[in-house]
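Appendix B, Record 12. Input sequence as logged:
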Amino acid sequence: TVLFMGDSIIQWWTRYGLDSWNRWFAPLGAEDDGVAGDTTSNLLYRLEHGNVAGTAPKVVVVEIGTNDIPHDRRPADVVRGIEAVLAAVQQQQPAARLLLLGLLPRDTAGSPDRATVDAVNRLLATSDPVRTGRVTYLDPGRLLLQPDGDPIPGALHADLRHPTDLGYRLMSTELAPALAELLQTK
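Logged structural output:
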């Protein structure tokens, strides 16, 4: 099975991205464990209080951190929170492969929130868990952007944070093959 953990981006995949979920992830026995509004500390709390107890996923997909940004957390602080989540998942699910998704774009190109997202993703791509191979990193959010950095029309809801059906379909084109590869890896 595959366990998806995170915030509203994950939770709403089975709502706004249901077609892609049913096509690509439901056949893998995927479970959606996203909670709207979660920050890294919220997810860490859930993990520390038995959120994944009794499960044995082959792959855990983690997408978390975007809700830390409005709390004026610096990119390095957001990354430390994400790394703490990854460590907790690894401790509780040592046999599972971990797939970390970068933060999705927020707002338009050049906005302060977008600059923070970009900085977090750069740090995640070179973070210790990724460099050492303990975690696979994927940034499907870039598939939601035009060459100028603004969102593809219709890929994000009006809040410019949450994917639409189109956005989830675009991300699935990269996520599905990555998951298939991780599921085949021993």
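The chain has a mean pLDDT of 94.
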